């Protein structure tokens, strides 16, 4: 086990995967010579050379598509999308092509591809470089989607994704790249896709979080003291129903914390599934803590309020535990928006 | 041009001091193009530009106050502080919200031109974009569409040699991007983008052609990015001597030489002008720094209009 930053854990996962399997390669803008805009490919060009570590033109459709094609021919490409918004210009190749090849070939053409994209707000990059856009991908059958929350999951989910036989999108919370954490590398460090982790035990409420909201939820949970169980969902598709249901069976309450705007968020899926499957175990209505339905604002103070803060989560959980009712989000409490 | 250069220096200082958060993309070295464009367009024309847009915004007539306030996230900024450096806009001067997705402005400019053509208006759309944008699908689709529909649009590639940390030759098989016009059977014209007179002449012709209904032109202005790509980038990837060679052709120096040679201004005139620009910038910086941030309610404004 070593202490490393999340971006170093990603570089370590890529390096270990490339050492293990000669078909693994990396594409992306400034990933080779510059070692990644967020330094997630440090050392890779030097070790693996320009055939396997390639700088691309600003041609997301071109290089994601090339990764799809290479994958159909037995390579295991990892395509890096600098900011997830840029996947917009390449979406066809991922959701309409890569995700359907297995289905459309009787299982004979597979696409063992990984698309990594940085996501999320908190760094002042403005509306078009700060969104958390999981919902672009989660409704696509054939695609797996995972989100790391620390160095270990950044390493482990990426290793699992590269070994996976199907296209996997790894959405990396950008604010976490510089965070340090303990990380086990090698086979023991692999985090299987589809497994959630209970990162804090409690018996009063299950808080399901993902990516950067895991640490925010943990911060709020610490302030509230015992009782709050925090589950790091880790994989959005396929998500770990068993772990979430088992937790809710213990706590009787469910809160989902999401970084993205409320409408169409993945938390609705969790709340709906848990409500249907465990209705009688619930002691209070499940609910979601999300960003409001607005684009990410630039101003620092506004951006800080946009995604759920530890203060907001703490307030909501406290009110929910005390009253058994679903509290209003800050913008309704403050009369700022409906 | 002098104002734009000093403005960019100021943004850089404010960023280094932590008074601006997020990121910024400076246009030092590329001012001649911004100024030439503004001089060749009418207020009724429309411009789509990029995240490297402080210069074009100022050249088109947005005030230092409005642009700086936006970059500093103030309520008095052109979008009330929700946009920031990458998203400047002001329809009064013809500037669409600047594009932070590479290449996204090209089809939109074609569409603006389509509106002008359809309504028979004497207006032109211009899109400024970088050399790196010439490799994205939107570039090719927009040029083809504009060519086949003969749209009144001018595509202006600001070829500053780099796309982020990649030199053009690493990502692009040709460095004379104007030649790509040939694939769409439209004129492609290179110009020394450090030279205002030359740039104006080429733009004037392209704009006139568009206005006359003769269709689009691809102009390639050869410029150089004096700063790094964004905020902390020190641009250590440049070959030795390259920046220094380009700095010898600094558009500000060239313009000064030209103004003095033609007698359009005296050295004293220029000194006085420069002093006034600096004093104004200092005053506006102080004013803007003291302005309030937007209220939380601002983030809920203008998400959508009334439902039809
Ligand atoms: C579709 C898309 N891909 C990648 C980026 C990230 N990015 C922002 S600027 C930039 C370089 C653009 O280079 P160029 O077009 O030459 O313009 P310049 O920055 O030199 O003005 C890149 C890759 C982006 N904003 N949009
Ligand atoms: Mg460029």
From TrEMBL, chain A:
Which CDD domains does its entry note? TPP_PYR_E1-PDHc-beta_like
Any matching Pfam family: Transketolase_C
One GO molecular function term of this record is: oxidoreductase activity
Q: Which domain of life is it from?
A: Bacteria
Cofactor(s) needed, names only, are:
thiamine diphosphate
**Which terms are listed as keywords in the entry?**
Oxidoreductase, Pyruvate, Thiamine pyrophosphate
> Does the keyword Oxidoreductase feature in the UniProt annotation?
yes
- Where are the bilayer-spanning segments? none
Query: What region holds the Transketolase-like pyrimidine-binding domain?
Result: 4-179
Protein name, entry field = Pyruvate dehydrogenase subunit beta
Automatic annotation (TrEMBL), chain B:
Which GO biological process annotations does it have? Answer: pyruvate decarboxylation to acetyl-CoA
Annotated keywords: Oxidoreductase, Thiamine pyrophosphate
Q: Where is the signal peptide?
A: none
Q: Which cofactor(s) does the record list?
A: thiamine diphosphate
Q: Name one Pfam family in it.
A: E1_dh
Dehydrogenase E1 component domain segment(s): 3-296
The record's GO molecular-function terms, alphabetically, read: magnesium ion binding; pyruvate dehydrogenase (acetyl-transferring) activity
Q: What is this protein called?
A: Acetoin:2,6-dichlorophenolindophenol oxidoreductase subunit alpha
């Amino acid at each position: 086990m070593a202490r490393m930053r999340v971006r170093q854990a990603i570089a370590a996962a890529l390096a270990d995967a490339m050492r293990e399997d000669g078909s693994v390669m990396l594409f992306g803008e400034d990933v080779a010579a510059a070692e990644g805009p967020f330094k997630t490919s440090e050392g890779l060009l030097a070790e693996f050379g320009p055939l396997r570590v390639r700088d691309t033109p600003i041609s997301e459709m071109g290089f994601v598509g090339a990764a799809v094609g290479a994958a159909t021919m037995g390579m295991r490409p990892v395509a890096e999308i600098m900011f997830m918004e840029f996947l917009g210009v390449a979406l066809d190749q991922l959701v309409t092509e890569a995700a359907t090849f297995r289905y459309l070939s009787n299982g004979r053409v597979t696409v063992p591809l990984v698309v990594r994209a940085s996501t999320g707000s908190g760094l002042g990059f403005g509306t078009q470089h700060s969104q958390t856009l999981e919902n672009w991908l989660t409704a696509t059958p054939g695609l797996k989607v995972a989100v790391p929350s620390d160095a270990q999951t950044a390493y482990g989910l990426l290793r699992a994704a590269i070994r996976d036989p199907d296209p996997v999108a790894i959405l990396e919370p950008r604010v976490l790249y510089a965070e340090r954490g303990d990380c086990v590398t090698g086979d023991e460090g692999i985090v299987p896709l589809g497994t959630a982790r209970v990162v804090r035990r409690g018996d009063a409420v299950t808080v399901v979080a993902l990516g950067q909201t895991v640490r925010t939820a943990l911060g709020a949970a610490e302030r509230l003291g015992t009782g709050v169980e925090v589950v790091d969902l880790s994989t959005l598709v396929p998500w770990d129903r068993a772990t979430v249901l088992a937790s809710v069976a213990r706590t009787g309450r469910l809160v989902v914390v999401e970084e993205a705007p409320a409408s169409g968020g993945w938390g609705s899926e969790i709340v709906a599934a848990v409500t249907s499957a465990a209705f009688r175990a619930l002691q209070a209505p499940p609910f979601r803590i999300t960003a409001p339905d607005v684009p990410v604002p630039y101003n620092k103070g506004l951006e800080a309020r946009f995604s759920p803060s530890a203060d907001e989560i703490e307030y909501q959980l406290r009110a929910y535990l005390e009253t058994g009712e679903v509290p209003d989000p800050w913008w309704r409490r403050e009369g700022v928006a409906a | 041009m002098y104002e734009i250069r000093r403005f960019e220096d100021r943004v850089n200082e404010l960023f280094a001091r932590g008074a601006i958060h997020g990121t910024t993309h400076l246009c030092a070295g590329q001012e001649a193009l911004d100024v030439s464009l503004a001089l060749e367009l009418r207020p009724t024309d429309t411009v789509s530009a990029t995240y490297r847009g402080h210069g074009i915004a100022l050249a088109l007539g947005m005030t230092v106050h409005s642009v700086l306030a936006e970059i500093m996230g103030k309520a008095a900024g052109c979008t009330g502080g929700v946009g920031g450096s990458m998203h400047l806009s002001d329809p009064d001067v013809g500037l669409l919200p600047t594009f932070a997705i590479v290449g996204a402005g090209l089809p939109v400019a074609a569409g603006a031109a389509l509106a002008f053509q359809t309504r028979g208006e004497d207006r032109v759309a211009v899109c400024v974009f970088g050399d790196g944008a010439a490799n994205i699908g939107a570039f090719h689709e927009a040029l083809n569409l504009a060519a086949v529909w003969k749209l009144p649009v001018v595509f202006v590639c600001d070829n500053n040699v780099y796309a982020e940390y990649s030199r053009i030759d690493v990502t692009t098989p040709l460095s004379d991007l104007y030649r790509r016009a040939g694939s769409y059977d439209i004129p492609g014209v290179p110009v020394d983008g450090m030279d205002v007179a030359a740039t104006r002449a080429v733009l004037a012709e392209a704009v006139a052609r568009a206005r006359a209904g003769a269709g689009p032109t691809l102009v390639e202005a050869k410029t150089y990015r004096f700063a790094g790509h964004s905020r902390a980038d020190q641009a250590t990837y440049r070959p030795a001597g390259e920046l220094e060679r380009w700095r010898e052709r600094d558009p500000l120096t060239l313009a000064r030489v030209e103004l003095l040679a033609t007698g359009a201004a005296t050295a004293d005139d220029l000194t006085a002008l420069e002093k006034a620009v600096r004093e104004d910038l200092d005053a506006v910086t102080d004013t803007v720094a003291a302005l309030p941030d937007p209220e939380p309610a601002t983030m809920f404004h203008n998400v959508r209009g009334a439902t039809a």
